[in-house]
C-alpha cells in the first residue's frame, strides 16, 4: 500500500509543480512582465485600481518554491492577488535594469542590495503615491520577508489592500492576523 501511495504521489507531483522561467524563477499568471521602471509600474497599478507589489526571489530558493507550490496556487490567494495587486518580480541576483523611484538605474541585484533585501522571497508592498526622492524600500508600507503559510500570506495581502497600515489604524498586522486566525478557528470568516 505504501508503494502505491508513493507511486501515485510521484505521478501527481508534476501536475502541481510550479512553472519555472528561463531565469529559474517561478512564474504565475498574476506576475507582470514590465520594463521595471518602478514609477511607471506604480502608475499602471494605480490606473488599474491595484496595489503595487515588488516580489524579490532567486533561483533555487526552497522558500520561494514552498510559496509557489503550497501557498500561491490556492485559489483564494491567487484570485485575491490577481484581482487586487500588480506584482513585479525581481531576481535577487539578476542583471535586468530597474529604475527606482528616485531615478537610480540599477541591476536587479544592485537594487536588492540598495534596499537591504537579504532573504527570498521578500515582498515589498508600495503605497499609491511615492515621491521622486524615495526608494522602493523607504516607501514600502510593509515588507514580507520570507515564506509564510497561506493564512499569514492572505492576511498580509488583505491588511495592505485594506490600508490597515495607516498611522491612525488601531490594529497593527500582528493584532489583525491574530484576530483573523481566531475568526477562522471560530468559523466566522471565509
TrEMBL record:
Q: Which positions make up the signal peptide?
A: 1-17
Matching entries from InterPro entries are given as:
SoxW, Thioredoxin-like_fold, Thioredoxin_CS
Q: Does the keyword Signal apply?
A: yes
Entry annotated with the keyword Signal? yes
Keywords tagged on the record: Signal
Residue span, Thioredoxin-like fold domain? 46-129
This chain's protein is named Thioredoxin family protein
Amino acid at each position: 500500500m505504501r508503494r502505491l501511495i508513493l507511486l501515485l504521489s510521484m505521478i501527481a507531483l508534476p501536475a502541481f509543480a510550479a512553472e519555472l522561467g528561463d531565469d529559474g524563477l517561478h512564474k504565475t499568471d498574476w506576475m507582470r512582465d514590465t520594463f521595471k521602471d518602478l514609477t511607471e509600474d506604480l502608475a499602471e497599478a494605480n490606473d488599474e485600481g491595484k496595489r503595487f507589489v515588488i516580489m524579490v526571489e532567486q533561483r533555487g530558493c526552497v522558500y520561494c518554491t514552498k510559496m509557489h507550490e503550497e501557498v500561491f496556487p490556492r485559489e483564494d490567494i491567487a484570485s485575491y492577488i490577481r484581482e487586487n495587486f500588480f506584482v513585479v518580480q525581481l531576481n535577487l541576483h539578476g542583471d535586468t535594469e530597474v529604475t527606482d523611484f528616485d531615478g537610480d538605474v540599477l541591476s536587479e541585484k544592485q537594487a536588492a542590495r540598495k534596499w537591504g533585501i537579504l532573504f527570498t522571497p521578500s515582498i515589498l508592498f508600495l503605497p499609491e503615491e511615492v515621491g521622486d526622492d524615495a526608494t522602493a524600500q523607504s516607501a514600502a508600507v510593509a515588507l514580507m520577508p520570507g515564506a509564510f503559510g497561506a493564512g499569514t500570506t492572505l492576511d498580509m495581502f488583505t491588511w495592505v489592500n485594506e490600508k490597515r497600515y495607516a498611522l491612525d489604524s488601531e490594529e497593527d498586522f500582528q493584532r489583525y492576523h491574530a484576530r483573523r486566525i481566531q475568526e477562522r478557528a471560530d468559523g466566522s470568516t471565509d
